[in-house]
Specification:
Blueprint lengths: L10 H10 L8 H11 L7 E2 L15 H12 L2 E6 L7 E3 L21 E3 L5 E3 L3 H7 L6 H11 L1
Parallel strand pairs: 1-5
Antiparallel strand pairs: 2-3, 2-4, 4-5
Bound molecules: zinc ion (ZN).
Length: 153
């Protein structure tokens, strides 16, 4: 959810970003960037998987083994914070579990307040990933299904 800080950002934006990740919000733009960047330093480059919004279907994945495999991987995932707004630099930080808010599915199911890095470090996801396969399979687009196949192969 956080993009990498750079000089194109205003000082106010940088200050807000520092506050968001629990850093002091003082100093020059350069200092703020350095502090934020080092906080983000040990992040993993992974892609977001199964962030599905506005579910309408009530379908279950016809392949039960896929649901089971994803559930097994999810159990072994690592909690953290994923950046899935970035156009290019998808990142996942495993260093802390700061509260980033819940997502509520259209059916009322609530996510946890963090993201999860799946084993293999290729994808990060949210706590509703298995729910989407169980309850909203037809809302998962082709891109996400391809990623899922790649993960489970
Ligand atoms: Zn739902």
């Amino acid at each position: 959810m956080l993009k990498r800080p750079d000089m194109s950002m205003s000082k106010t934006e940088l200050k807000q970003m520092a506050e968001k990740i629990g850093l002091p919000n003082n100093g020059t733009k350069e200092q703020l960037i350095e502090a934020i960047d080092s906080e983000l330093y040990d992040c993993v480059h992974a892609e977001p998987l199964l962030y599905i919004y506005g579910c309408k279907s009530k379908t279950r994945c016809p392949d039960e083994s896929k649901i089971q495999k994803l559930a097994d991987l999810f159990k072994r995932s690592q909690k953290g914070l994923g950046n899935y707004d970035a156009k290019k630099n998808y990142e996942f930080r495993t260093t802390n579990n700061r509260y980033m808010g819940h997502h509520v599915c259209s059916c009322g199911e609530r996510s946890s307040s963090c993201d999860y890095l799946l084993p293999g470090n290729k994808y990060f996801t949210n706590s509703l990933c298995v729910h989407y396969l169980e309850c909203h399979y037809d809302d998962i687009n082709k891109t996400e299904l391809a990623k899922l196949d790649n993960l489970l192969k």
